[in-house]
Amino acid sequence: MAKQSTLRFGAQTDEVTSLLRVVNLVRTHEASTRPEIGRVTGLGRGVVTQRVDQAIEMGFLEDGEFGPSSGGRAPRTLRFRSDRGRIIVCALGALHIHVGVTLLDGDVLDAEHRAWDISRGPAETLDTAMGMIDELLARTPDVPVWGVAVGVPGPVDFGTGRPVAPPIMPGWNGFDVRRKFAQRYEAPVWVDNDVNLLALNERARRRDEHADLIYCKIGTGIGAGLLSQGRLHRGANGAAGDIGHVRVRDSDVPCRCGKTGCLEAVAGGWALVRDAEQAVADGSTGHLARWVSEGNALTPEAISRAAEDGDAVAISLVQRSARVVGESIAALVNMFNPATIVVGGAVPSAGEIFLAEVRQRVYELSLPLATRDLTIAQSVDDAREPLRGGAEMVREQLFDVTFPRWFAAGRPTVGGIFVDAA
């Protein structure tokens, strides 16, 4: 328990600021010994000792092994107490629920996945997800939950944690997702678009805190997560990157959002399923036709696998999706000038069949300066990507954004995060 009498937490004093920085330096591995902290911060030896002792007393840091000697006595290393709390991540997709639990270092301890149609609505979906989470909590270390991340496949007002008119999530508009989880787990909750979690995972995976990166997900729907100098660009209301509903030139295909000609209605996974079903009904032969004749349902994943296996209809559909998506990505490249484009989701899992078309369109339509050092790559296609990304979001919000509000108490609380937030 913190000795609040020794620190003035009403305002962020120099003492508090330096203590926060010391904890975060050790947490992020920027400094691991007292001498290193002194060199990075410019604080005197006595002040560093005092701040470290305070952080140890409050339970954020602990002494580790002795480090290498530079000629004198070997310094003792410091470690952040990542085992003091757990992070819950619930990544909802159009057709699945994926949940996981991590410690404060963000490494996934345990995870569960279940096929699920998100159109079944928020009450049933979240009850099912929380049942899965409770099973994970029972199997992981019994320490308090410090934060919860929820990713959803649609637009989210990040400030309130409520989905806003999500096209593929009927019944979810304005639903208070945050409150449902906060009441259950008595911890602060952050809700975001699922592709933003994937972008944060890429930042962590690449260990690039200043990444200029766009993650473009082409699954059942289409969206993009935008990182500028390592920070997510959510826009004024959280709608940044929702390229799935950008108008495609010369298209009048109806979209599930109620408009016509949207990118998602032409190139998204559900659009490919629609067009593949029509092709099979019109008498096409090959892998997809056999798949359907055997009683299997067409999915974006099935179409991508068929394309890899040489099915002519599947290849045509995947390449058409890639060309149209590439045109939209080219516009993002011209506007944001990222260093890296990562494409992921069910449709790009067709590999080079998809990626080659995207590259061609981007390089054809983007400015030479914007593409001079541009890398376009496929995601690693790891099922735990959104879980790691969700943990990264919680860690960022806890330790970079809200830390001064709650660290005197030794752990975050729901009120300590949200009551004072504007």
Task: Write a structural description.
This is ROK family protein. InterPro entries: ATPase_NBD, ROK, ROK_cs, WH-like_DNA-bd_sf, WH_DNA-bd_sf. Pfam families: ROK (PF00480). The chain has 422 residues and is of the alpha/beta class. The chain has three domains: 4-80, Winged helix-like DNA-binding domain superfamily/Winged helix DNA-binding domain (Arc Repressor Mutant, subunit A, Orthogonal Bundle); 84-200 and 384-418, Nucleotidyltransferase, domain 5, CATH 3.30.420.40; 207-378, ATPase, nucleotide binding domain (Nucleotidyltransferase, domain 5, 2-Layer Sandwich), CATH 3.30.420.40. The protein has 16 helices and 14 strands. A five-stranded mixed β-sheet has the order 5-4-3-6-9, with helices on both faces. A five-stranded mixed β-sheet has the order 12-11-10-13-14, sandwiched between helices. A two-stranded antiparallel sheet has the order 1-2. A hairpin with a 4-residue loop joins strand 7 and strand 8 (162-163). Residues 1-6 have low confidence and may be disordered.
Helicity, as a percent range: 40-55%
Tally of alpha and pi helices = 16
Order of helices and strands: HHHEEEEEHEEEHEHEEEHHHHHEHHEHHH
Largest sheet geometry: 5 strands, mixed
Q: How much strand content do the residues show?
A: 15-25%
Number of strand elements: 14
The CATH class of the largest domain: Alpha Beta
Distance from first to last alpha carbon: 28 Å
Strand order of the largest sheet: 5-4-3-6-9
> Roughly how many Å is the radius of gyration?
24 Å
Low-confidence stretches: 1-6
Spell out the CATH superfamily of the largest domain: ATPase, nucleotide binding domain
Within the CATH hierarchy, at the fold level, what is the topology of the largest domain?
A: Nucleotidyltransferase, domain 5
Would you tell me the overall average pLDDT? 92
CATH architecture descriptor of the largest domain = 2-Layer Sandwich
Indicate how many domains the architecture comprises.
Answer: 3
Global morphology = globular
Structural class: alpha/beta
